[in-house]
Design brief:
The strands form six sheets. A nine-stranded mixed beta sheet has the order 2-1-11-10-12-13-14-15-16, sandwiched between helices. A five-stranded parallel beta sheet has the order 4-3-5-6-7, sandwiched between helices. The model is unreliable at 1-7 (pLDDT under 50). The protein is an alpha/beta fold. Helices cover 32% and strands 23% of the residues. Helix 13 (300-310) links the parallel strand 13 (290-293) and strand 14 (314-318). It folds into two domains: 5-403, ANL, N-terminal domain (Rossmann fold), CATH 3.40.50.12780; 418-526, ANL, C-terminal domain (GMP Synthetase, Chain A, domain 3).
């Protein structure tokens, strides 16, 4: 494997590996968590995690059993999540905007022994509680209900000392469910050894440690935040800033000003909105040491605007639910706008062409495969899909990439988004990047739509509020620019203007909705 530690260890408990180093460093009185006006020291976190673990043992939750969490980003999330891992049980934090049907699917698919929930999500659970095959132990975090156990009450009498369950490197530690944009969500199984990659980027490269304050705008159920706003920073002894509600740009700006994070993780949409609202020009944003961007491709124009406003680069990176941690990233001393950077320490990558051949020459696209200690062991109950995606420690990202002569990796879109136009493979991302160079366009997406002859042709969707009524002239301006700079077959035949892009609950673009919209418009025009 990519981490030398994996060959030196035979057993490992992830919760112990996360919490132990800070206690050993003597950080008992250092602040581990900040949530509003509440602070939690490392000593308090240690004892409350132990009390939660002991409470779960009293309820009969055993090693390997799954527990689903629908809990906001608050200290209780940490107590429950780490407490479960410490006894060898498996926490599964789910999307807080999960539909009732998907919640029922997750509870049934994971065979959850318990369900831990905030009061505000109980209504969703009640819709489907009678559809759950084996009724889980029901635990409420923040409000007493007659028909739920109450977390503070079951933790209060529990012992504050707890011996961590002995686990093998390959034993399950945590699960995460994929967003399910192409079907039912997949249960991604991460083993104890996932934690061996926690320090590579944030510790070895970013120098994160005691005194640092980490904030991520994405919720903890996302792999992006789970890896970089829980697992790694707690192991490194930093302070994590929590925001329980779903944030907007205004809330993020207030957090930066009030709590002064030193490292911030967010997505391009938030960075764009912070610039739009002129929040990024405030002095507090210049005091953040490093900014990371992931979740979607970062337009170079946004990179340069952020640099101009804050004096800090936006370090674009990419990871996956299946890796938990980022596998490509720009670095403070080595960054290149428009790319996802270079492999993170401990990571091996390779690109396989559409023909199945290893890509060895620059500027040739193919599917990126990654190998690192934190690669998941597979998908729960999906053996065929697991065999397709996980091979000999490698994970197939299904993301198309190229690398240039200097080793920079550039995202080209999802492999299943690649389009064959006039016999040539076309990356929607290449076209979108060019369109976004026009300052009137804030968002762009290209999809393929069959025409009346069944041939796939390109359709461009844009959010361009400044164009107003001059759409026809603007379309000609874009078309001329595309033909001048790209091959003619990469010029979309049809263009659409939207007020906003259709997104999933996790903020990912729903290209199938755009295809459907284009097809509907085509049918309407033909009738």
């Amino acid at each position: 494997m990519s981490s030398s530690n994996s060959s030196e260890r035979k057993s490992l408990n992830m919760a112990e590996a996360i919490l132990g180093p800070s206690i050993a460093r003597g950080q008992n009185h250092d602040i581990a968590l900040i949530c509003g006006d509440e602070t939690v020291t490392y000593c308090q976190l240690w004892h409350r995690v132990n009390k939660a673990g002991n409470a779960f043992l009293e309820l009969g939750i055993q090693k390997g059993e799954r527990v689903v969490l629908m809990v906001r980003d608050c200290p209780e999330f940490f107590y429950v999540y780490l407490g479960l891992m410490k006894i060898g049980a498996v926490p599964i934090a789910v999307n807080l905007r999960l539909s009732a049907d998907d919640l029922a699917y997750t509870l049934n698919d994971s065979e959850a022994k318990a369900f831990v929930v905030d009061d505000m999500f109980v209504a969703t659970y009640r819709e489907i509680s009678d559809q759950v095959n084996a009724r889980p132990i029901e635990i409420m975090t923040d409000v007493e209900h007659a028909d739920f156990l109450y977390l503070p009450k079951i933790m209060e009498p529990a012992d504050k000392e707890l011996v961590a369950a002995d686990s093998k490197l390959e034993d399950p530690a945590l699960w995460m469910y994929s967003s399910g944009t192409t079907g039912k969500p997949k249960g991604v199984v991460h083993s104890q050894k996932t934690i061996l990659d926690a320090e590579h980027l944030m510790g070895d490269i970013m120098g994160v440690g005691p005194g640092d304050r980490i904030f991520g705008s994405s919720k903890l159920f996302f792999a992006f935040s789970m890896g970089h706003c829980l697992l790694a920073p707690i192991k490194l002894g930093a302070t994590v800033i929590l925001y329980p509600d779903w944030p907007d740009a205004e809330a993020v700006a207030e957090i930066v000003e009030r709590y002064e994070p030193t490292i911030m993780f967010s997505v391009p949409t938030f960075y764009r909105n912070l610039l739009r609202d002129e929040a990024a020009e405030k002095p507090a944003f210049k005091n953040v040491r490093h900014y990371f961007s992931a979740g979607e491709k970062l337009p170079p124009a946004l990179f340069h605007s952020w640099m101009a406003a804050t004096g800090r680069p936006l370090l674009e990176a990419i990871g996956a639910t299946e890796t938990c941690f980022l596998f490509l990233a720009n670095r403070p001393d080595k960054f290149n706008a428009g790319t996802c950077g270079v492999p993170t320490p401990g990571t091996e990558v390779k690109i396989i062409s559409q023909d199945g051949e290893l890509v060895t020459e620059p500027n040739q696209s193919g599917v990126l495969w990654v190998r690192m200690a934190c690669v998941a062991s597979g998908y729960w109950n999906l053996k065929k899909k697991t065999r397709e995606v996980f091979k000999d420690g490698w994970y197939c990202t299904n993301d198309m990439f190229t690398f240039d002569e200097d080793g920079w990796y550039e995202y080209q879109g999802r492999a299943d988004d690649m389009l064959k136009i006039s016999g040539q493979w076309v990356s929607p991302t290449e076209i979108e990047d060019h369109v976004l160079k026009n300052k009137k366009v804030t968002q762009a997406a290209v999809v393929g739509v069959p025409n009346e002859d069944g041939l796939v042709r390109l359709a461009l969707f844009m959010v361009a509020p400044d164009v107003g009524d001059a759409k026809e002239a603007f379309e000609k301006e874009l078309t001329d620019s595309l033909i001048e700079n790209l091959a003619v077959y990469k010029c979309p035949r049809r263009m659409f203007f939207l007020d906003e892009m259709p997104l999933t609950a996790t903020g990912k673009l729903q290209r199938f909705e755009l295809r459907k919209l284009a097809e509907e418009q085509q049918l309407a025009a033909a009738s």
